[in-house]
Amino acid sequence: MSHPHEDVPPVTTEVHDNSWSANLETPAHAEDPDVVVEQAIDAVEKTTVGNHVNLVSHADHGHPETYLFDALAEAFGDSISLEYVQQCGCGGHVTRVHREA
Fold this sequence. Notes:
Layout: E1 20-24, H1 27-31, H2 33-45, E2 52-57, H3 69-76, E3 80-87, E4 93-99
Parallel strand pairs: 1-2
Antiparallel strand pairs: 2-4, 3-4
């Protein structure tokens, strides 16, 4: 059962002028990788230049390189850099996105 994207609470509602982490591991995220991508893009948009956001994605979708990296690169181009940090003990994945420009 997939959640309509508008029914999923936003990962953040504020602009972050610091480095922070976005939780993309909720049951709604597990059910729909499109929600993960949509909210990851929103999280990066709400991170100011010179800072990074750690995107913590659900294990159900596998390594974020397979579905998230290209979407972020397409959305932001050279204004970001991506770094895979680690797989969490719970199986989820941490990707660090630096806002370059």
